[in-house]
# Entry
Amino acid sequence: MALSRSARHPSRLLALATAVAAGFTIAAAPAASPGAPGIGDPYFPDMGNGGFDALHYDLGVSYDPGSGRLDGHTTLTARATQNLSSFDLDLQKLTVDSIRVNGKPADFTRTRDEIVITPRHRLRKGERFEVSVAYGGVPMPLNGPIVFGSDYGWMKTKDGVFVACEPNAASTWFPSSDHPSDKATYDIRIDAPKGLTGVSNGTLVDSHDRGGRSYFHWRETKPMATYLATASIGKFDVKTGRTPGGTPIYVAIDPVLAHQNTVDVYAVTAEATDYWSKLFGPYPFEETGAVVDDMPEAGFSLETQTKPSYSAVRSESTIVHELAHQWFGDDVSVHQWKDIWLNEGFATYAQWLWAEHRGTRSAHDSFLATYNSIAATSDFWKIEVADPKRDTMFSSAVYQRGAMMLQALRERIGDQAFFKLLPAWTKLHRYGNASTDDFVRLAEHVSGQSLGDLFQKWIHDTGKPAL
# Structure
C-alpha cells in the first residue's frame, strides 16, 4: 500500500491535526461533474459544449479526393470552467481512433454526434488542458431547409473539396465545440495530393511538396467561430498582394471559372475591404481575400474568416456583402443563433451602402424599393426577425427586413450618430459575441434616444409596418 501524500509530509499532517483540534472544519475539495453536452442555444441545443472554454485548435487534415476519405488529427487547447469529470466534443459521423488528454490516453464513448471524454484525472476549474483526437472517415455534408435547401459543410468537388459550414457543419470535419459563442484561434494544416492547393483562414505560414503530396499550414491568430473555419482543396489560380490601404490579400480562383468572370474578384475585394475599413472600423484581421470554386451544387457563398468562400463567380454586390461580414459576423459574432439578423441584416445593408457609394441608388431608395415590392399578405412579414426560428433563420426577411431596420434607425437618429454607431459596435465587441439587446443599448447610448419602439416595429413585430 502506497503512503498518502499527507503521510509523506509530517509538517502538513501536523497542521491538519492542529486545525482539527482547534475545531476548524476541513472543507472537502469541490466535486467534479460532467460538462454539459451543449451550449444551450434553442436552435441547436446539442451544439457547443459546457464546462470548458476553447482557446486554440491545431487541425491536421489529410484528404484523398478520389475516395473522399479524410484522416484528421485535432488538438484542442481549452480552459476548464468547472471541475470536470468528463466533457463533450461535437463530431458528426466520423470515426474516432484515439483520444489523449494532456498526453495520456482517455476513455471515450459516442452518443450520436457527441464524443463523451473521460480523462484519467479530473480537470480543475481554471486549468488549461489539451485534448488530442485522431479520427477519420468520409465527411458528409448536411442538408435540409436551413441553408436555402442546399447542402452545406464538407462538399466534394471534381478536384477536391469546398468547405462552407454555417451554421452547424464544422463538426462534420473536425471535433470541436461547434457554436459561435466559443471562439478560438487556429492552426490548420492541409495535406493533399501534389498539384492541388489547400486554402484556409488567416495567413499562410508554410507550403511545400514532399513525395506525391502538397502541404499547407495556415494560421488564424484572431478568435474565430467554428463555422467560419475552412480547408478548401482544389486546383486554384492564386493572386496575392496588398489592397491600396495596405492589407495583405490572397485570392484563389478555380481555373475552370477563369473565362466566366464578369467581375474582378481581386479588385473588388481590395476596394471593398478598404472602404468598409473607413465605415466600420479598422479591418479586424491580418489578411483579406476570397476562395472561388466550381461548386454549382452549393447555391450560396459564405463569409469564411479572412477569405469568403464563393461556390461560383459571384456579383460585385455579393462580394461586398461577404466582406462586410468580416466585421458583422466574424469579428462580432452572434451570442445565439436567433441573433442572426445582426450578421445578415448588416451585410445586406452594406450592399445598399455600396450602391450609395457607387452613386447608383441611395440606401433610402433601396429601402423603399424593397418595402414596396413585398405585399402585406406575403409570408415575408410573418417572420419575427429578432427570433426567426431554426428552419427560417436564413429567410429573406432576416436579410431584407434586417437591412430595413438599419435604414429606419439611420433616419431616426441621423447620419452623424449612425455612422458613429457602426465602428463603435465593432470596437466594443471586437473578437467577441453580442446580442440584439446589446445593439439596442449601444444605439440608445450613442444617439441619446429611446429606440425601443423602433426595434419593436421592425424586428420583433410581425406584419407589414406602416411608414
